[in-house]
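Marked as duplicate of an earlier ticket. Keeping the data here for the record.
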Amino acid sequence: MSFTYGDTKNILENRRSFLEGLGIDHLSLVCAKQVHANTVRCVTARDAGRGAKFYDNSFEATDAFITDAKKLPLAVFTADCLSIFLYDSVKGAIGLVHAGWRGTKVGILPRAVELMGKNFGSDPSDISAGFGPCIRQCCYEVKDDLRAFFGGGVSKRDNRYYLDLPGINKKSLLGMGVKAANIFDAGECTFCLSKKYFSHRRESDKAGRMMSVMMLT
């Protein structure tokens, strides 16, 4: 699915095959050059196709999109990082976030929720959030210096430290006023499920990327 990682021979056909059954035009995708930071882009219909056919015209240095435009498919790419889907059914707006530990540390998710409020009038209590597959605390070994920042989001096991990436982001959403009943988690670990998902931690530079897509109909 990615122009820059893994097997890049049949990208457009892979995307078309994946999205066609969902009624999504793969040439209308809005994509980004993700950098693990906290830039959120508010995109409109005129941005359709950015990064769909060529990596070079993707949005620079961006890790999340928000929009209230219909028929505008947003995409992020992951291989252990967490994709987060945001939907405000009241205002008719969505957000799609790429959140690894770096993006989580600099607040990419709360930034996206905040900008949905500023741009569309979204109230966090009206937002539903979905978490895609990612590397989970069972496998996400990190250095102990992350404990100082993430606190209870890092556990110790056999003198090693493990990060709960979805748990930290869920706590962030709850703190902003998103209801617990409106948070949905796929619950699957990309590192554990080697036959189902790519994992950068497992495959290093050979890892391809999964594509998460969201669109208002």
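See parent ticket for discussion. The longest helix spans residues 108-120.
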